[in-house]
Amino acid sequence: MPTYDYRCAECGDFARMRRISERDEPCDCPVCGAASPRALVAAPSLAGTTAGSLDGGGAHMHSATCGCGSGGVKLAGRS
């Protein structure tokens, strides 16, 4: 079962392992018992990067034996 994050208005964040079908239902806070909504967490930003630096603009080409499965072809979006 996956773990989901919830946020109690009084006690703060907590995590619970729940069925996927129950993920969006409120979960009781383990401290005070209040029904708490699921907390949607945004992906963290990578330190020292900008949106433009992650677009794959480099001319990197994998070798045919690197193990990534690209077969030595240039990756999509790369020149």
The low-confidence parts are none
> Which word captures the global form?
elongated
Count of alpha/pi helices: 0
Category by helix and strand content:
mainly beta
Number of strands: 4
The helix/strand order is: EEEE
Q: Into which percent range does the helicity of residues fall?
A: under 10%
What's the mean pLDDT score?
77
Q: In which order are the strands of the major sheet placed?
A: 1-2
What fraction of residues sit in β-strands? 15-25%
Radius of gyration (CA) equals 21 Å
Main sheet attributes: strand count, strand direction, barrel closure: 2 strands, antiparallel
Q: What is the terminal separation in angstroms?
A: 41 Å
Domain Putative regulatory protein FmdB zinc ribbon: 1-41
Protein name: Zinc ribbon domain-containing protein
InterPro entries: Regulatory_FmdB_Zinc_ribbon (IPR013429)
Account of the 3D structure:
There is one protein chain. With 79 residues, the protein is mostly beta strands. It has a domain at 3-36. It has no helices and 4 strands. The strands form 2 sheets. The chain has a two-stranded antiparallel sheet with strand order 1-2. Strands 3-4 form a two-stranded antiparallel ribbon. A hairpin with a 3-residue loop joins β1 (3-8) and β2 (12-17). The model has no long low-confidence stretch (mean pLDDT 77).
